[in-house]
Structures are given as C-alpha cells and as structure tokens.
Write a structure and sequence with these properties.
The strands form three sheets. Strands 3-4-5-9-6 form a five-stranded mixed sheet, with helices on both faces. The chain is built from 27 helices and nine strands. By secondary structure, it is of the alpha+beta class.
C-alpha cells in the first residue's frame, strides 16, 4: 500500500491521508532516522555544520512533514480512528525524542563543533542554533546517569499521553453537551444571527427548534444576550464544569486525576535535571530571568490594575441593581449585565457591528493593512488539497515572488478543537540551492455563514483573526535559512506572542478599520458614529479583563513553582483569586479542568507570556503611534528587525534594535486604559 505520508510532497495530500497510514509512516521514519544518525556518528567527518547540523535538519524535516498534517487533522477533523492512530504514535515520538536528546555521542559532536575553529566562522544564527542545541541536550538529561535517563524518558512518554488525554477529554466533554430549545421565548434577547445559527445546528441534527452547544459561537451569545437567567446558569454550569467531577457530565471525562499526574511528573522531571521545580525548568528557554521576576512582574501589573477592576465591578453591580433590580450578581450574569451597561454607556454591541465585518472584507482588509506596512501581497489559490471544504489557501508574494503560503480554516464545526491558533506546516529552509517555503495553518472557530448570508464577524473575532495572522506572518516572512531558527522556531516562548498581539492594534485604528470594514449588503464603511462608539468602548472593563488574565497567569506559574506532594490545585487557584481577582466564581466552577493551554499545550509555567509579550507589543506599536500607523519606514524596520529574524537572535536584542531601548510597561497600561493606583489616588 502506498503511504502518502512517506511521499516527498510540497504540501500535505490531506484527502489521501487515512488513519491506517499514520503509525506505519511514523515507525518507518523513526527507524530510518535512527539508522542515519548511527551512520553519521560512525563517520570521522561529523563535527561540522554541513556534516552535522544539516543532516540532522533533514531528518527532523522529514519527520515533521509526516507528523504535522496528522496532528493538525486530529485537531480540526477529529475522529475515533484518527485519534487512536495519533495517540498510538505519541509514545513512539516521545521515546525517539528522548533517545536523541540523551545521545551522548551526538551531544559530544555538537560540543566539538562549538569548540572548533569553524564555530567562529559561522554566522550569528548558526552559532545560536548550536548553543540552543547544547542547552536542549542538557534539558533532555544527556548528563544523567543511565537509570535517571530511563526515568526521564518514561516521564516524557507518560506526559505526552496524559496531555493528549486531557485535550481529548475537553473535546469530548464539549461535544457531549447540547440542549434543544423548542420554545423560542426561552431565547429572548439573543440576536438574529445567534438564533439562525442555533436553528441551523438543530436542522443539521434533523431536529425542530434551536440547538445550543458549548462551542464558543453558541456559548458566547447565550452568556452575553440571553434574558433567560436560568438558561444562562445552565449553559455556564455545563461550560465551566467540562471534563470535571462537577456538572452535567460529572466524572465522565474527568481531568482531575490527569492534572495531578501531569503536575507530579513535571515536578519530578525538573528535579531530575537539578531545577527547584517546573517553573524554573520552564524559564531555561524563555526571556524571563527567574521565577521571582515573573511573579514580581505579574503582581506589579495586578497591583496597578486591581483598584480600577474593583471600581469597574462596583459600577456593574450598581447598574444591575438600579436598572434591573438584581442585587446578587452571579458568574452567569457578568457578561449579560456587562453588555447592557456597555449598551447604555456607548450604545454599541458586537452583534450590531457584524454587518460591517463580513469575513471576506475583513480578510482582504487585513491583507491591505499588511501590504501597506511591509509591501507584500496575497493571492488566493484554487484547487489545493485540504481537509475540509471551508478551508482556503493563499500565497504570500513579494515583488512577484512567492515567499510563503498558508491555509485558512475560519469556522467552528463538530469534531474541531475550540479556540484559535497558528501552527507550522512547513518551515523555511535553504538547502541544495533551493528554498523550502514556509507554510502555516491558521485556525479559528468563528460563526459560520448562516442561510444565504455570508459569514459576518464580530469585531472581537476580527481582532482574533489579526492575532493569529500576526503569528503566521512571524512564521512566513522569515528570511532565516536554517529551519531550527526560521519563523517561530527557536523563539523564546515569552516573546512568541509579540507579533500576534502587535497586529491587533490595527483593529483599533480609524485608518485600519476603514480597510477591514464594509457593510455586507451595501459595502458602505462603518458609520462615523459607530466607529467612535467602538473606539470609545475599547477599554470598557479592561481592568477586569486584565486581572482575569493575571489570575490565569499567576495560577499557572504558582502551581508549577510551589508544587509539592500535598499541593491542592483548587487551593492554589482560590488563593490566587483572593489575591488578584475581583469576580469569585461559584464553588462548582472547575476552570482548571479545561485549561488546555497549560495542561495540553505549550504554556505550562508560561501562560504569563501573553502579558509579558503584551508589554513588548504595546511598546513596539507606540513607535507607530509616534511616527504614523502606516509609516512604511517604521513597518520595514519592524519587518527587518523582528519578523524576518525569527529565532536567529535573542528577542530582547531584536526589540532593542527596533525600538532603540528596552521595553517599558507604560504603553500597555495606557493602551488598556488603566491608571495605576498611584495615578488614581
């Protein structure tokens, strides 16, 4: 049987991929790679860049090209057979990675290259790659005794299985709950777009009525607009107890034990390597200097934000009581009354803005923004093999030459993991005189087209689109020729959000909004009164949102920093909430059980990265505020000093080259409309 995963294809042949292809391909490639590495190490000539790093890059790339579409499809068109095939390979990949990282001979070959005269002739990117590799060998346990190496490998294998199980449970728990509403009056307050979406979901299940699910395009309108308080409570309860011991599917997909095991194994892994705990281990590859610096950074932001957050909550409570007679504000009321207050204060809502943000206009406008900044262009390509009919494919061109490509998968659907993300399909790499173009997956979960209308986005969704596209540009505009440092590869995790958060700014600028908005029926621009209201409402409850993100960040970091055998996850979360939060959720809330960023993604002891990088992005954008938001010279500078450089240099060095100094926190507070307690005293 011909296996498409073993073909050397420019792009993955998605329509040909079957679950039965997965394990044989991965097993075969791992076997071939290990054989090639053995031959490499047996050779006398294995201590140079072209005789060591380049062959390793080739082996990594072949494995990555096979595994990337498998992991991606598991996230966006999940099925039982594909999940089983995917999960069966996780131990194989983990064990292979561990063997590679603990290969003493390979480590010594890299150390010899570092100590050789050739090292001084390499460019800065090549030197950084060698140094990063040596660091990663140490973090993989290359210096451990054999028995500890074995234990390290066992831990890595178990963690790969547990984190995948965590993700599976969240997806299954999300898909397990739905509610059919047959009396439309129960949905009073929901906008037409949400009602039409709910009816379309019901019809897809051959039901009469309106179907609610826990997918975000269904969940969010209920929590924001539905007048039926009991229904809001029911939906909130189902959402906030997913994959836990509480709520409608209590115990069925419970992640509680997975969390305990993940934390325990991470702690043991860090201790094996001589770190105080997983937080310190995590920072070995990040910008932040120490766990104490991270805590200090987060607590400083909290101290500056909490007084205003408390004031915002007091205003919301007073409003709910005065206007609606509600004096026991609950978690399922916050979004609802918050929207009512926003309406009263600014007379604008996300739903009201939808007609001015048809998906096609927002996408073409986003391309126009990027073109003005960096002089690159975009072209849609038909006939490319994809995993779903809604997926589109684009080329990025500069001076008529294609420099990158990407898949765009915008809409929520069954069997697709929630959230939004960018992932790598192919990395830029120059070899044998040819350039392998970078290719990205850009994935969102927006409300799909309903009936005959095109997909209409909220402004929040447009901001999300720009965020993920910022990640994509970081990956695709790189000019680094080595896959270990091109695009997002080799970028410190707490700097990787800089380009994504940076892109969001153009969604809040009048000149940017003129490009990305236009009424879906008439093409008319966003009316001036709505524009002014949108901009005025930008920082509505921004301090409440700030402390919520700080709550997640501190919970994650303290959980990994303070871990011990007697640590209780809920106790840590409760203590963090007492310290920084202004909204205390009900006792049944099990947010942590679906916190995939830290228990199934790459953000363990790293969720603080969002705020860390937000300081960088706000300060970087302040230069555009000073020089013009479409100043081409400033855009070219950001392109050349940050986006094109990928992981070829330390992020602080790149930032300083662009900004002329180290980052300052003031721009973030100003952009968020937050005045510190000192200023408001």
């Amino acid at each position: 049987m011909k296996n498409p995963l073993l073909e050397n294809c420019e792009l993955p042949p998605f329509s040909q991929l079957q679950p039965e292809h997965v394990r044989p391909a991965i097993e075969g490639i791992i076997h071939d790679n290990e054989k090639a590495i053995s031959m490499l190490l047996a050779s006398e000539n294995n201590k140079g860049w072209t005789t060591l790093q380049e062959p390793i890059d080739q082996l990594d790339d072949r494995l990555g090209q096979a595994w990337s579409p498998v992991g991606h499809m598991n996230a966006v068109v999940n099925s039982e057979a594909l999940r089983e095939a995917y999960n069966s390979c996780l131990p194989l990949l983990s064990e292979y990675s561990t063997r590679l990282g603990q290969n003493r001979q390979l480590f010594e070959a890299y150390q010899s290259l570092k100590d050789s005269a050739e090292f001084n002739t390499l460019d800065k990117a090549q030197q950084k790659i060698i140094n990063d590799n040596l660091r990663d060998f140490r973090l993989a346990g290359v210096a451990l005794d054999d028995d500890k190496k074995q234990r390290f490998g066992d831990i890595k294998k178990q963690l790969s299985e547990l984190t995948s199980k965590f993700s599976d449970n969240v997806l299954d728990a999300t898909m397990a709950w739905s509610k059919l509403i047959t009396d439309e009056s129960e949905l009073a307050g929901l906008p037409e777009s949400a009602l039409a979406g709910a009816k379309q979901l019901a019809q897809a299940k051959e039901k009469e009525g309106w179907m609610l699910t826990l997918d975000f395009p269904s969940y969010f309108p209920v929590m924001t607009y539905c007048d039926n308080r009991e229904l809001r409570k029911e939906v909130y309860t189902a959402f906030s107890t997913r994959a836990s011991d509480q709520g409608p599917s209590a115990g069925q997909f419970d992640n509680t034990d997975n969390i305990k095991q993940i934390l325990k194994l991470r702690y043991e892994l860090a201790k094996l390597l001589g770190f105080s705990g997983y937080a310190e281990y995590s920072l070995a590859t990040k910008m932040a200097e120490s766990p104490e610096k991270v805590i200090e950074f987060l607590e400083d932001l909290a101290a500056k934000s909490k007084p205003q957050a408390e004031k915002e909550l007091a205003e919301l409570k007073a409003f709910a009581k005065a206007e609606f007679g509600t004096d026991d504000l609950q978690a399922w009321d916050i979004g609802y009354y918050g929207e009512k207050l926003r309406q009263q204060r600014y007379a604008i809502s996300q739903e009201e803005l939808r007609p001015w943000f048809p998906a096609e206009k927002s996408i073409s406008g986003m391309f126009a923004v990027v073109n003005r900044l960096y002089g690159i262009e975009f072209e849609s390509v038909e006939g490319v093999d994809t995993w779903h009919k809604d997926v589109r494919f684009f080329n990025i061109t500069r001076d008529g030459e294609t420099i990158g490509r990407f898949y765009l998968d915008l809409y929520a659907r069954e069997h697709k993991r929630g959230g939004a993300w960018m992932d790598v399909c192919r990395s830029r790499w120059q070899r044998d005189g040819k350039v392998q173009l970078p290719v990205a997956y850009l994935t969102c979960n927006f409300t799909p087209p309903v009936g005959d209308n095109p997909a209409l986005l909220t402004h929040d969704e447009v901001v999300t689109l720009f965020h993920e596209f910022g990640h994509g540009l970081h990956h695709m505009l790189t000019k680094v020729d080595y896959p270990s440092a091109s695009g997002i590869s080799g970028v410190a995790w707490d700097a990787v959000e800089l380009p994504s958060q940076f892109m969001e700014n153009w969604c809040w600028e009048k000149e940017g909004l003129a490009l990305i908005s236009g009424h879906f029926e008439t093409g008319e621009p966003l009316p001036e009164d709505k524009l002014q209201k949108l901009l005025a409402a930008k920082n509505f409850q921004s301090a409440m949102m700030m402390v919520r993100q700080l709550e997640f960040s501190l919970f994650d970091f303290k959980l990994h920093k303070e871990y011990g055998d007697d640590l209780n996850v809920q106790t840590v979360l409760d203590a963090v909430r007492q310290q920084v939060a202004v909204i205390m959720p009900p006792a049944f809330n099990r947010f942590q059980n679906s916190f995939s960023h830290i228990f199934a993604g790459g953000y363990a002891a790293g969720y603080y990265s969002y705020k860390w990088a937000e300081v960088l992005s706000a300060d970087a954008f302040s230069k555009f505020e000073e020089e013009g938001i479409f100043n081409r010279q400033t855009g070219e500078s950001f392109l050349h000093e940050v986006l094109e450089k990928g992981g070829s240099a330390e992020p602080m060095e790149l930032f300083v080259k662009f900004r002329g100094r180290e980052p300052e926190i003031d721009a973030l507070l100003r952009h968020s409309g937050i005045k510190s307690s000192i200023e408001t005293a």
